[in-house]
Amino acid sequence: MLMTGAQYIESLRKMKTRVYMFGELVENWVDHPIIRPSIDCVAMTYDLAHDPEYADLMTATSNLTGETVNRFCHLHQSTDDLRKKVKMQRLLGQKTASCFQRCVGMDAFNAVFSTTYEIDQKYGTAYHENFKNFMIEVQNNDWIVDGAMTDPKGDRGLAPSAQRDPDLFMHIVERREDGIVVCGAKAHQTGTINSPWHIIMPTQAMREEDADYAVSFATPSDADGIYMIYGRQSCDTRKLEEGADLDLGNQKFGGQEALVVFDHVFIPNKYIFMAGEFDFAGMMVERFAGYHRQSYGGCKVGVGDVLIGAAALAAEYNGAQKASHIKDKLIEMIHLNETLYCCGIACSAEGYPTAAGNYQIDLLLANVCKQNVTRFPYDITRLAEDIAGGLMVTMPSQADFKSDVVCGKNGETVAEICDKFFSGSPACTTEERMRVLRLIENMCLGSAAVGYRTESLHGAGSPQAQRIMIQRQGNLAAKKELAKAICGITK
Ligand SMILES: Cc1cc2nc3c(=O)[nH]c(=O)nc-3n(C[C@H](O)[C@H](O)[C@H](O)COP(=O)(O)OP(=O)(O)OC[C@H]3O[C@@H](n4cnc5c(N)ncnc54)[C@H](O)[C@@H]3O)c2cc1C
To answer: Is 198 a catalytic residue?
Structure first.
């Protein structure tokens, strides 16, 4: 079944998910003004799947059921599927200018599918069957699922079992006939409240002494013992203001991250995908991270498209669009953005089938993609801020632009004075100029900067994690042989 955005939002109302924000339990989180833009953003992943124009990108045929499914619930069957995934993510970035939150689950599906197959091959376990059955549920219900990898990690210099508090990494505290009981937390979870289910994966490769930390499973987000503490974003309380509009920058959409706590949560056997096979933790992490590093070659590019458009509009509204350095800066922004897209498409085109049959991206190219993503959006935002001018951070509030309080000697209101002094070229009204500057603020410094900047840096692993993979995958030995052959070294 393909849900619509409205059906998705209604389905959330049935959840008993426990959410805390500003120190209080949030009763109706679906309609909360800070949370709702992130829900509306996810809803776009549902609505676009019903648009005939995007059906080829947004839907796929399930290898498990033969049914049409939302591509966010799909196990990639070819390099064509991998490329379409990136194109779909670019499309969603363009339509929302935010993190639309559904990629982590899709990337988890594909990593857990192939890893469980290989665990079963070695240990004769039944994790792959468990996972396939779970995937059929996911596809039939069109669920968004949170891909939960990152543990709080405590002291980064210590292994999971050496931490002063064992809950700093997710771990098994009890093994029962019918399942396991887990404790711990997952930090920075994207779309966690908006996801009816979670897939938990280990956060790093594990050693034998950390076997209880090598755990992967699925759970409903409102299972007994699970609760979430909402992450705040820059400028988030603007969404609480009466009649919030101009100051939001992005009228409709936003992202979401939160801490998810697991306090003695029971996981039945049929939802367990790893429970102690520590030698496969690294494989699951590497595969998930590979897919997620590919993802950023799509979603961040789509958001970048909006920012480049906003910068071009700001130049026009400032009357500076004909200046050669402005034109050149816009060219540079496009060049950087398309370079990221090239990387996303390249690692997809060079994908290959796993032993389980789904397609994996080229790991080296996906890591190069993400390494570039840790840099280029920062250059793109710098150029956008340059073109926008200082007003994007110094302009008065929406309330001033609407104020009828008199401040001028001739009876001018605050609104009239703002309108007069912040006008730009005749191509736009003052309000239009303010709107585009607020959008740039939102994407460079406000709530969307969480997704466009810091998520570009740390999401899918901090830059050093990619450099380690580039070192491993870069095959220096073969490159040395090439050099020897060319210059005549024979030993
Ligand atoms: C907006 C956003 C959304 C996210 N969404 C998700 C999500 O949906 N699901 C999910 O699972 N995760 C998510 N993440 C988490 C993301 O994967 C982590 O932020 C990332 O892996 C880095 O971990 P950290 O934040 O704990 O930083 P740290 O691990 O504390 O890293 C900080 C710095 O310390 C360095 N460092 C850390 N440990 C060591 C060490 N042992 N030796 C040397 N250097 C070290 C790092 O390289 C980095 O430079 C998200 C993050 C962000 C910012």
So the answer is: no
CA 123 to CA 131: how far, in whole Å?
A: 16
Q: How many CB atoms lie within 10 A of CB 97?
A: 29
Helix (H) or strand (E) holding 336: helix 324-349
Positive or negative, the CA dihedral 427, 447, 190, 213 is: positive
Average pLDDT over residues 184-195: 98
Question: Is 334 a residue whose pLDDT tops 90?
Answer: yes
Q: 129-156 as b/e, with b when 16 or more CB fall inside 10 Å?
A: ebbbebbeebbeebbbbbbbbbbbebee
Q: How many residues does the chain have?
A: 491
| Residue nearest to ligand 1 atom 31, measured at CA | 462
Domains of the chain (ranges, CATH numbers): 285-481 (1.20.140.10)
What single string gives the DSSP state of each residue in 43-63? HHHHHGGG-GGGHHHHEEE-T
pTM of the shown model: 0.98
- Nearest residue by C-alpha to atom 49 in ligand 1: 462
H or E, element range at 217: strand 215-220
Residue with tokens 């498990």: 64
CA of 192 to the centre of ligand 1 (A): 17
Q: What is the pLDDT at residue 1?
A: 84
pLDDT digit string (tens) for 110-159? 999 999 999 999 999 999 999 999 999 999 999 999 999 999 999 999 99
Q: Enter the tokens of residue 276.
A: 């102690």
